[in-house]
Amino acid sequence: MEDDSASTKKGMILPFVPLSVTFDNIKYSVDMPQEMKGQGVQEDRLELLKSISGSFRPGVLTALMGVSGAGKTTLMDVLAGRKTGGYIEGDIRISGYPKKQETFARVSGYCEQNDIHSPQVTVYESLLFSAWLRLPKDVDSNKRKIFIEEVMELVELKPLRNALVGLPGVNGLSTEQRKRLTIAVELVANPSIIFMDEPTSGLDARAAAIVMRTVRNTVDTGRTVVCTIHQPSIDIFEAFDELFLMKRGGEEIYAGPLGHNSSELIKYFEEIQGVSKIKDGYNPATWMLEVTTISQEQILGVDFSDIYKKSELYQFFFTGIIALLLGTIFWDLGSKVYTSQDLLNAMGSMYSAVLFIGVMNCTSVQPVVAVERTVFYRERAAGMYSAFPYAFGQVVIELPYALAQDILYAVIVYSMIGFEWTVAKFFWYLFFGYFTLLYFTFYGMMTVGLTPNYHIAAIVSAAFYAIWNLFSGFVIPRPKVPIWWRWYCWICPVAWTLYGLVVSQYGDIMTEMDDKRTVKVFVEDYFDFKHSWLGWVAAVVVAFGVLFATLFAFAIMKLNFQKR
């Protein structure tokens, strides 16, 4: 089992299940303070977190950072279920399942910034007491004691097992040793997810390094560990694998890998026009916080939150989150074809997986193309280039990006949903996923090209999302659509994507279902999907991408919405 291997690689006697945390559109607000109302503020609520999305993964050490007032501890408290007041909105899932606090508390630990321990007990007694109360009752006394010994070795507390905890700053353990004890008290509960609030706060460089070595050991067991941290040293900062960065006001401005010597982080911010380059030997964490302040935003005339949400990094990050989310929701549905309902469930998983990312691509490309079109009007007027090479470049640049996105998405979703692993079937899944992402992207570009601004384009495209969904063949199979509306099924691009996905995965399976029909016969009878049409279906899906790209190019060349 995966959980056994995750634990035993560090010699831990008690197994645990590695869990991921995904969160989407998290908002947190409190009642508006009376002082602010007295200053003329009209709103009833003060929003502290604004539409935060992200994920934390097993075996990955994530730093949650931001200036004071950014909301990093607030976000961690919301995710951990520690907020007792205020208003929380959004979706939090644990490995794909909706978070329920009563069960989440049993698989998570929370290391507070203030190390609060009973001063009159020893280190071993502190751990034994926590283990007694928090481990499942089926863990016998011998296993419990062995596990406590393993945890003490993991956090390097064995030499201090009989030391009194004592009072902070008076006697007993040092501040750094108390930090490690705080981590150990949570670890003996055998959690899968651990939140740490500024574990290196108040420590000198040597003590902080010891604590971070303990944190790293914890991550290496396969657990999900998230730490809030404030202005770390270079060595401490580079101990982290990923960064989730927030700005004042509760908005995310970076979520992704740090890279070797923080190279990925530095590359991302240095590519933003106007951001000063980092000096040799300068702390990347300090530089990052300096160049992303509110005052820097005002000087540069940018919003780092908007830049991040329009970036390729965000799209790939979001793609990975959605892939993991859908993969866990539709876990192993693809291998179950015993009943017609099984097949419909599998079909729903394919449909949802591709449609979700397709719509996201369409909506995210529209504001970018709208801004670029304004630049194009100016540069064309200056005689720098004509319309066709501009349109051609806009189309071609999407091809490799969509391919990388499709491969990332397909590998995660295909394996987790449990479709049949053959070269041909996986190729067709990649093929239809890729060209569906392309025609959604080109459709978004086309709607911008044909309308005055991206706000109108968004309204137009949203209307067609609903129509496409209705005629896709998923809500109502094509044979059951009234004859006077059936023609639209043949010109609905999503219907052809669904056709291709279903017949490529199930159109040739001769396994008998519970009603004695084979899967192939059911697909033909119920959906009128024929495996022999697979090549034609593939050609039509490609044709939709070509059509939308051509219409975008035509709009760029022939229409001009610039007002002077």
UniProtKB/TrEMBL annotation:
CDD domains reported in the protein's UniProt record: ABCG_PDR_domain2
Signal peptide boundaries: none
Topological relation to the membrane, as annotated: Multi-pass membrane protein
Record carries keyword Transmembrane: yes
A single cellular component GO annotation: membrane
Keywords of the record: ATP-binding, Membrane, Nucleotide-binding, Repeat, Transmembrane, Transmembrane helix, Transport
Subcellular location: Membrane
Gene3D superfamilies: P-loop containing nucleotide triphosphate hydrolases
Alphabetized PROSITE patterns for the sequence: ABC_TRANSPORTER_2 (PS50893)
InterPro entries: AAA+_ATPase (IPR003593), ABC2_TM (IPR013525), ABC_transporter-like_ATP-bd (IPR003439), ABCG_PDR_2 (IPR034003), P-loop_NTPase (IPR027417)
MF annotations from Gene Ontology: ABC-type transporter activity; ATP binding; ATP hydrolysis activity
UniProt key word Transmembrane helix: yes
SUPFAM superfamilies: P-loop containing nucleoside triphosphate hydrolases
Function field: May be a general defense protein.
Similarity section: Belongs to the ABC transporter superfamily. ABCG family. PDR (TC 3.A.1.205) subfamily.
Protein name: ABC transporter G family member 40
Organism listed in the record: Zea mays
